[in-house]
Amino acid sequence: MNTSNNSNVEMVKHNSVYLAIIGLLSVAIPVVVAVLFSIPQTGGLGALDVSFLPKLNAVLNSSTAIALLSGYYFIKNKNIVLHRLSMFSAFTLSSIFLVSYVIYHFQAQHTLYGGTGIIKTIYLSLLLSHILLAIAIVPLVLLTIYFAITNQLVKHKKIAKWTFPIWLYVAVSGVIVYFLISPYYV
Length: 186
Fold this sequence. Notes:
The chain is mainly alpha-helical and about 190 residues long.
């Protein structure tokens, strides 16, 4: 077997392992979040005050949106170094958001939206689209980053065209959802 075939075999094995991890995370993350909403929140972390976390989460989502827009601007202007920095920042901010979100929903009681009429319909529609796309964005982000890191740039560009607008929508809609429900936090 020649060197080219060996490297192709290694690349397939390498891809298979990481794609399996991405698949596992893509299922595990939404399942963990769903479980949090199905169990009663009883303050499992003791007296830890998490009342500041929804506001922090809105800041993290806003910052993610800014990082995404910056990354888009930089890649359009062929500044790969700043594009990578912006996208790494967006990923880091989103990861911190996820941890904060899980802690909050593990510790705090659920907040019910108190609005009525058309604004409630708007809120619920926005929330539903936000939740569904937040689930979808997990594998998209992980694959987009994986293809960038492994220098599979054709695949990276192809999936990034889907990842970017969905990720941006999830970040921005998360902030809007926060502003709509924030008057009802206890």
